[in-house]
Design brief:
The complex is a heterotrimer of chains A (594), B (319) and C (312). Chain A has 594 residues and is of the alpha/beta class. Chain A is built from 20 helices and 22 strands. In chain A, helix 7 links the parallel strand 7 (172-176) and strand 8 (204-209). The chains are: A alpha/beta (594), B mainly alpha (319), C mainly alpha (312). Chain A: Keywords: ATP-binding, Nucleotide-binding, Transport.
Chain lengths: 594, 319, 312
C-alpha cells in the first residue's frame, strides 16, 4: 500500500470574481521511502495542493481523496488532522526567517514540536531537540538552542526547520521550495542534508520546487504540474532526460544550461491560462505547438506511455523541433578601443545601526571594472556581495566615497550635475522586480514616456508615436498604451521596463537580475529579447544574476564578486571551464549540481 | 539597549523642558496682569508693585524663566492665585481621585477590549465578529460625555426618580475609608471610560491578530500540530501584544487630559476638574502645574513603554 | 505559489479576464456595503439639514438665539417638550432645540471638514518629506511628531484657551495642531516603503528630480491612506470641538453648537427633567461620528484589498 495516495483531488477558492480552480483532478501516489518531487511554475498549484491536504489553507474547497496509510485526510475532523500534522507528516517551508516565530528561541520552538504530541518532561524534550540540532549540522547546539531565529544565517535557519520536521520521526516530510530563498552554495548543502537525512532515517519526502533540475537531482519520482493539472508523472531522471509531455520538454528547452550555449533558448509563448476559467481541454493546449482540435476540446487522460511514465497528452513523446543556433554577434570587443564605461577604485560604505553601536559596513572595497562597446559583461556573486550596489554606482544612483566612474571618458559626477544628466542618455537600467519597478498608479504610456518628458521637448502626438514605436520594439501591443501595469503579466512588465530604459537610445544598459522573478518559460522570452536588442541596436550590457547558467548563456565576459571585490574576471568560456579561485570553483560546483 | 533607554529618557526630559517653556511663554506673552489677578480689581498701585516685586515680574525674561525652572526642579509650583494654597498640595489632594478613576477603568477596558478583539479575529466575518465590530464601532464613535450623560440619566436619574438608588450621586469616597463605597461611587465613571476605550482596544487587537495570523510562522505552528488555542494565545497573541502595550502607554500618558470630561460629567473632584476650574478662574499657577504634570505622565509612560518594548521584543532585546 | 499570493488580483492579471479599474472596484464594493451606504445617506441628509438651518428658523419662526420665554417655558420656568410649537422641544432659555441643532450641525461640519483638511495637508507634507528624504530631515521631523504627540492635548488646549480666550478659529487651530501627527506618521511609513520600491529608483535613474518623484510617483500611491485617514479624522475633529464647547472653551455662547447645548443641559442638571436637551444633540453627535467612522471603515475595506480579504 502506498504511504500517500491522492485520488482525483481538486482545490478551489471562491472569490469575488468567481471560483479559482487552483488544483484540478490530480492523482498520484507516493510509496514509503520515496523522494517524490513536484515541479511546476508559479500558478501551477503545487504548494496549495499539499498544504490543502493538511488543512493549512483557510477557505479552500477540496474534493477527491488523499489516503495517508489508507486513511482519507480530506474531510477528517480538524482535531484528528492536527494530531497527524507534525507527528506523522511534517513540513518545511520556503522562507526560514518568516517561518520561525521571532519571539521564541529556536530551542523553545523545537521543544514545542515534541511536547505538542508527546508527554515527555521538558528537559528530555530539550536534550532531544539539541541532539537533533547537532544532527542537522548546527555547531555548539547546546548554546545555540537559546538563540532567536534572527541570530542565525539563512542556511542555519533552514537546518533548524529541517530539525523541527525530523524531531518526531514522521513518516512523511513535505518540503515546500526549501532552497529557493537561499544562495546557491547554501542551497546545495541543504539539498545534501535533506537527502542524507531521508536515507539515514528512512523517511519519505515530498519536495516541491519550481526548478526541474533541482528536483531531478534529489528525487526518485517526479510529477510535473501546470495550471493545476498533472502533466507528467514518472521516474525523476527519466522525466528530466527524456520528457514525454510537450510541456515538460518545452520547459527544459527554455532553461539555460551552464554546459550548452550553442543554442538559442526556446521560450514558451503566451502565458498561464486564467484559473477562473480554465480551458476545457488540455491546459497547455493554447501554448502548445502540437495542439489540435482534440487537445482543445477534451482533457487528455493521464495514461501510461513509454517506459512506464504517465503523461496527460494526446501527442506524447514527440520530438521537438531542433533549437536554433545562437546568432553570432558582429560586434565584440575591439582591440585597443577605449572602454565605454570605466569604474576605478570604487569604494562605498554605509553606516548601519544607531549610536552608540554605529558601524561602517564596507559594501564595495575598491572595485575596478571596464565595459567595452558591444559586449555583455556578466556579474555574479552571492547575495550581499555588492553586485547590485556596484551597478547602482555605475548608473549614478549611489555616490561612492572614493573612486570614479567614467562614461565615454567623461566623469559621471554627483547627482543632478550637468554631466550626470548627460550620462542619463548613455546609461540606463532595467530592474529586477517587474512588479515593483513600474508605478502601479500610472499608465504604461506615461511610464514609457517619462524619459522624454524629463529630457526632451517631445509632447503630444509625436511623443505618443515614439512610445508606440518603443512598445513595438520590445514586443508589446502598442494598443495597450492606456493600460495600467497590473493588467500585464510579469514578462510583459519586464518588457515595459526595457522599453523605458531604451527610450533615450542609451549605449549601455545595466540589468539587475532582470529575469530572476520570472518563470522559466517567460524568462527565456526576455533573455532572447535582450540578446536580439543588443544585436539590433549595438548595445553594451552589464548583466547581474545569481543564476550562473543564465549568465553563461548571455555573457561574453564574466566577473565574480565576493564581499565587495571582484575576485575573478575572464571570458565566459574560460571562467566556466577553468576557474582560478576557490570561491568561483565552489560557486560553479554548487550550480552544476543544483 | 541601555543606550537606547538613555536616549529615550533624554527625549522625555526634552519634552518636559519644552513644555515648561511653552506654558511659561504662553502666560508671559498673554494679555492681563498676573499681579492684578492675584490682588483683585480694587488693589492699589503700591500693592501691585509689591506683588510684582515678590513674583519677580520686574526681572528680565530669561531670569524669570530660570527662576521658574529652578523652582520647578525643586518641585515648587508656586501658589494658587485663588486659594493661596501651594499648587503641589492642590494637585496631590486630587490625584487619588484621578488615579482611582483611571486605574479601575483600565482594568475594565483591557478585560473587555482584548477578548472581544481576539474573538473577532478568530473567525473574521462570523456573527461573533460582526457583533464585536459593531460594539467597537459604536464605542469609538461615542463622545465620552454623551455616553456619561446617558448612563447617568438611565442608571441614576430614572431609578432615583422611581425611588430607588442604583448608584450614589456624585462624590468620591476614599479607598482606605470604605473599599465598597469607593468602588460603588466610581462604577459609572469606570464603565463610561472603559466602554469608550475598550472599543479602541478591540479594534486594535483584532487588526493586530489578523495581521499576525497571516504570518508564515503561524502556518509553521499549525503544521507542527499545535492546538488552535495555543496557536491563538501562545503564538499569535504573543506577537500582537507589543503594539497593544504601546497603545496602553500612550493612553495612560494622555489620560490626565482624557479624564477631564468624565470628572466634569460625574462631578468628581479630580485633577481634571481642578484644571477646568483653574481655567475658568484664570488661576495660572494651577494651570501650569496641571499641564506639566500631564507632560510628566506622558514622559514616564513613554519610558515605561520603551522598557516593556525591549522586554517583549526579542529582536530589540538581543540587538 | 503559496496560498497567500492567491489573490483575485493575481488571477485577473490573465489577459482573458477583463480587469475592473480600481475606482470601479471601489465603487462596486461600497455599493454592496449596506452600512457604508446608510452612513453616506445620513451624511448627505445632515449636510442638507445644516444648509436648511435659516429655512427652519423661518418656518418655525424661531431664530436660533431668540428666547421665547412665554411659549418655550412653562409658568414655573421649565422648558416645554417636543410638540407642535417646538418640534424637538425648547431649552432652559426658551430657545428652539431643532433650529439650534441645525446651526450646531453647521459648526460641527465646518470644524470637522476644515480642521481635517488642514491637518491632513500638513500631515501629508510632513510625512512625505520625512519619509522621502530620510536621514537628518526625517530625524528632526519625526522628533517634532513625537513632541506634539507627547503634549497632553486637552490640557494644552485648555491652557491656550484660558490665555487667548475661546473662539471658533482658535478651536480649529488647536484641533489642527494636535491632529496632523497621526497621518504624518502613517504617510511617513508608507513613503519609506514606497521609496524602496524600484519604480522610484527607476525614476531617479531616468533623471527625475526629487519633487517630481514625490508628486508624480509617490503621491498617487498614497491616495488610499489619505482618503481613509482624512475621513476618519473628521469625526475625531468633531468630537474634539464638541468636547471643547462642552467644557465652555470652544464656541462662545449664545451661538449654537452641539457640545455647548449638551454643556448647558448638563450644567444645571436640567436634563434630568428635560430629556430632549440631551437626547437630540447627543444622538446628533453620536450618529454623525458613527457615520463618518463607518464610511471610513468601508472606504478602507474598499481601497485596501488586504483588509477586505481578511474581513471576508
Amino acid at each position: 500500500m502506498a504511504l500517500l495516495e491522492v485520488k482525483n483531488l481538486s482545490v478551489s477558492f471562491p472569490t469575488a470574481d468567481g471560483t479559482l480552480h487552483v488544483v484540478r483532478d490530480v492523482s498520484f501516489s507516493v510509496e514509503a521511502g520515496d523522494f517524490f518531487g513536484i515541479v511546476g511554475e508559479s500558478g501551477s498549484g503545487k504548494s496549495v495542493l499539499v498544504q490543502a491536504i493538511l488543512g493549512l489553507v483557510p477557505g479552500a474547497k477540496l474534493s477527491g481523496q488523499a489516503l495517508f496509510n489508507g486513511r482519507d485526510l480530506i474531510g477528517l475532523p480538524a482535531e484528528e488532522l492536527r494530531r497527524i500534522r507534525g507527528a506523522k507528516i511534517s513540513m518545511i517551508f520556503q522562507d526560514p526567517l518568516s517561518s520561525l516565530h521571532p519571539q521564541y528561541t529556536v530551542g523553545q520552538q523545537l521543544v514545542e514540536a515534541i511536547t505538542t504530541h508527546q508527554k515527555v518532561p521538558k528537559s528530555e524534550a530539550r536534550s532531544r531537540a539539541i541532539s537533533m540540532m547537532r544532527k542537522v549540522g548546527i555547531k555548539d547546539a547546546e548554546r545555540r538552542a537559546d538563540s532567536y531565529p534572527h541570530q542565525f544565517s539563512g542556511g542555519m535557519r533552514q537546518r533548524i526547520m529541517i530539525a523541527m520536521a525530523l524531531l518526531l520521526q514522521p513518516e512523511l516530510i513535505i518540503a515546500d521550495e526549501p532552497t529557493t530563498a537561499l544562495d546557491s552554495t547554501v542551497q546545495a548543502q541543504i539539498l545534501d542534508l535533506l537527502s542524507s537525512m531521508q536515507r539515514e532515517l528512512n523517511t519519505t519526502v515530498i519536495m516541491i520546487s519550481h526548478d526541474l533540475s533541482v528536483v531531478s537531482r534529489v528525487a526518485s519520482q517526479m510529477m510535473v504540474l501546470y495550471a493545476g493539472t498533472c502533466m507528467e508523472l514518472g521516474a525523476a531522471d527519466e522525466v528530466f532526460t527524456s520528457p514525454s509531455h510537450p510541456y515538460t520538454a518545452r520547459l527544459l528547452a527554455a532553461t539555460p544550461s551552464v554546459h550548452n550555449t550553442e543554442h538559442r533558448l526556446r521560450p514558451i509563448d503566451g502565458s498561464l491560462p486564467s484559473l477562473l476559467a480554465p480551458p476545457t481541454g488540455c491546459a497547455f493546449a493554447p501554448r502548445c505547438e502540437l495542439a489540435d482540435e482534440r487537445c482543445r476540446g477534451t482533457l487528455p487522460p493521464l495514461e501510461e506511455h513509454r517506459s512506464g511514465r504517465l503523461a496527460a497528452c494526446f501527442h506524447p513523446d514527440t520530438e521537438l523541433a531542433a533549437p536554433e543556433p545562437v546568432i553570432a554577434r558582429s560586434a565584440g570587443q575591439q582591440e585597443g578601443a577605449p572602454p565605454i564605461i570605466s569604474a576605478q577604485g570604487i569604494k562605498l560604505s554605509f553606516s548601519a545601526g544607531s549610536w552608540p553601536h554605529k558601524r561602517q559596513v564596507n559594501v564595495l572595497k575598491g572595485v575596478d571594472l571596464q565595459l567595452f562597446e558591444g559586449e555583455t559583461l556578466g556579474l555574479v556573486g552571492e547575495s550581499g556581495c555588492g553586485k547590485s550596489t556596484l551597478v547602482r554606482v555605475i548608473a549614478g544612483l549611489l555616490q561612492p566615497q572614493e573612486g570614479s566612474v567614467l562614461v565615454e571618458g567623461q566623469e559621471l559626477g554627483a547627482p543632478n550635475t550637468e554631466s550626470w544628466k548627460q550620462a542619463r542618455h548613455l546609461v540606463q537600467m532595467v530592474f529586477q522586480d517587474p512588479f515593483g519597478s513600474l508605478n502601479p498608479k500610472r499608465r504604461v504610456g506615461s511610464i514609457i514616456a517619462d524619459p522624454f518628458m524629463i529630457h526632451t521637448d517631445l509632447r503630444g502626438e509625436q511623443l505618443k508615436s515614439r512610445v508606440r514605436e518603443l512598445m513595438d520594439l520590445v514586443g508589446l501591443n502598442p494598443e495597450h498604451y492606456n493600460r495600467f501595469p497590473s493588467e500585464f503579466s510579469g514578462g510583459q512588465r519586464q518588457r515595459i521596463g526595457i522599453a523605458r530604459a531604451l527610450a533615450l537610445k542609451p549605449k549601455v544598459v545595466l540589468f539587475d537580475e532582470p529575469v530572476s522573478a520570472l518563470d522559466v518559460s517567460v524568462q527565456a522570452q526576455i533573455l532572447n529579447l535582450i540578446s536580439d536588442l543588443q544585436r539590433e541596436l549595438g548595445l553594451s550590457y552589464i548583466f547581474i544574476s545569481h543564476d550562473l547558467s543564465v549568465v553563461r548563456h548571455i555573457s561574453d565576459r564574466v566577473a565574480v564578486m565576493d564581499r565587495g571585490q571582484i575576485i575573478e574576471l575572464a571570458g565566459a568560456q574560460q571562467l566556466y571551464e577553468n576557474p582560478q579561485t576557490d570561491f568561483t570553483k565552489t560557486l560553479l560546483a554548487a550550480s552544476a549540481r543544483s | 539597549m541601555f543606550m537606547f533607554l538613555l536616549k529615550r529618557l533624554g527625549f522625555g526630559l526634552l519634552v518636559l523642558f519644552l513644555l515648561s517653556l511653552f506654558v511659561f511663554l504662553l502666560f508671559f506673552v498673554a494679555p492681563g496682569d498676573p499681579a492684578r489677578a492675584i490682588a483683585g480689581d480694587k488693589a492699589t498701585e503700591e500693592l501691585l508693585a509689591q506683588i510684582r516685586d515678590t513674583l519677580g515680574l520686574n526681572q528680565p525674561l530669561y531670569q524669570q524663566y530660570l527662576d521658574f525652572a529652578s523652582r520647578l526642579l525643586h518641585g515648587d509650583l508656586g501658589f494658587s492665585y485663588r486659594s493661596q494654597q501651594p499648587v503641589t498640595e492642590l494637585i496631590f489632594d486630587r490625584l487619588p481621585v484621578t488615579m482611582s478613576l483611571v486605574g479601575g477603568a483600565m482594568v475594565l477596558w483591557l478585560l473587555i477590549g482584548i477578548p472581544v478583539g481576539v474573538a473577532s479575529a478568530r473567525k473574521p466575518g462570523s456573527l461573533r465578529d460582526r457583533i464585536g465590530q459593531s460594539f467597537a464601532m459604536t464605542g469609538i464613535s461615542f463622545p465620552t460625555f454623551v455616553l456619561g450623560m446617558i448612563l447617568l440619566y438611565t442608571l441614576y436619574s430614572l431609578p432615583a426618580k422611581a425611588g430607588f438608588l442604583l448608584f450614589p450621586p456624585s462624590g468620591y469616597i476614599e479607598l482606605a475609608q470604605s473599599p465598597v463605597q469607593w468602588a460603588w461611587h466610581l462604577v459609572l465613571p469606570w464603565i463610561t471610560l472603559a466602554l469608550v476605550t475598550a472599543a479602541v482596544y478591540a479594534r486594535l487587537t483584532r487588526a493586530q491578530m489578523l495581521e499576525v495570523l497571516g504570518e508564515d510562522y503561524i502556518r509553521t505552528a499549525r503544521a507542527k500540530g499545535v492546538r488552535e488555542q495555543s496557536v491563538i494565545y501562545k503564538h499569535a497573541f504573543r506577537s500582537a501584544m507589543t503594539p497593544l502595550v504601546t497603545q496602553l502607554g500612550i493612553d495612560i500618558g494622555v489620560m490626565l487630559g482624557g479624564v477631564i470630561v468624565i470628572e466634569q460629567v460625574f462631578g468628581l473632584a479630580g485633577v481634571g476638574s481642578l484644571a477646568v476650574q483653574a481655567v475658568q478662574t484664570q488661576d495660572r499657577p494651577v494651570i501650569i502645574g496641571v499641564v506639566l504634570l500631564g507632560g510628566l505622565f506622558v514622559a514616564v509612560a513613554n519610558i515605561l513603554v520603551d522598557i516593556a518594548y525591549t522586554r517583549l521584543d526579542a529582536r530589540v532585546r538581543t540587538a | 505559489m503559496s496560498a497567500h499570493t492567491l489573490t483575485p488580483a493575481a488571477a485577473t492579471a490573465a489577459p482573458e479576464v477583463k480587469q475592473r479599474s480600481s475606482l470601479r472596484m471601489t465603487v462596486d464594493y461600497l455599493l454592496k456595503d449596506r452600512a457604508s451606504l446608510i452612513a453616506a445617506s445620513f451624511l448627505v441628509l445632515l449636510v442638507l439639514f445644516a444648509l436648511a438651518a435659516p429655512l427652519l428658523a423661518g418656518i418655525t419662526g424661531h431664530p436660533a438665539n431668540d428666547q421665547f420665554r412665554e411659549t418655550g417655558l412653562t409658568p414655573a420656568g421649565v422648558p416645554v417638550g417636543p410638540g407642535t410649537e417646538f418640534w424637538l422641544g425648547a431649552d432652559q432659555l426658551g430657545r428652539d432645540v431643532l433650529v439650534r441643532l441645525a446651526y450646531g450641525a453647521r459648526v460641527s461640519l465646518i470644524v470637522g471638514v476644515v480642521a481635517s483638511l488642514a491637518a491632513a495637508s500638513i500631515g501629508i507634507m510632513v510625512g512625505m518629506v520625512a519619509g522621502y528624504f530620510g536621514g537628518k530631515v526625517d530625524t528632526v521631523l519625526s522628533r517634532c511628531i513625537d513632541l506634539v504627540m507627547s503634549v497632553p492635548f486637552l490640557l494644552a488646549a485648555l491652557a491656550l484657551v484660558s490665555v487667548l480666550g475661546a473662539s471658533l478659529p482658535l478651536s480649529v487651530g488647536v484641533i489642527v495642531f494636535f491632529s496632523w501627527t497621526s497621518l504624518a506618521r502613517v504617510i511617513r511609513g508608507q513613503v519609506i516603503a514606497l521609496r524602496q520600491r524600484e519604480f522610484v529608483e527607476a525614476a531617479r535613474s531616468l533623471g527625475a528630480g526629487h519633487w517630481g518623484i514625490i508628486f508624480r510617483d509617490i503621491l498617487p500611491n498614497l491616495a488610499a491612506p489619505i482618503i481613509i485617514y482624512a475621513t476618519l479624522m473628521i469625526p475625531s475633529s468633531i468630537v474634539f470641538e464638541a468636547t471643547l464647547s462642552f467644557l465652555g472653551m470652544g464656541i462662545v455662547p449664545p451661538d449654537a453648537s452641539w457640545g455647548g447645548m449638551l454643556a448647558e443641559a448638563s450644567g444645571n442638571s436640567i436634563y434630568l427633567t428635560a430629556w430632549w436637551l440631551v437626547l437630540f444633540p447627543g444622538l446628533a453627535l453620536l450618529f454623525t461620528t458613527l457615520a463618518f467612522n463607518v464610511l471610513g471603515d468601508g472606504l478602507r475595506d474598499a481601497l485596501d484589498p488586504r483588509t477586505r480579504r481578511k474581513a471576508k
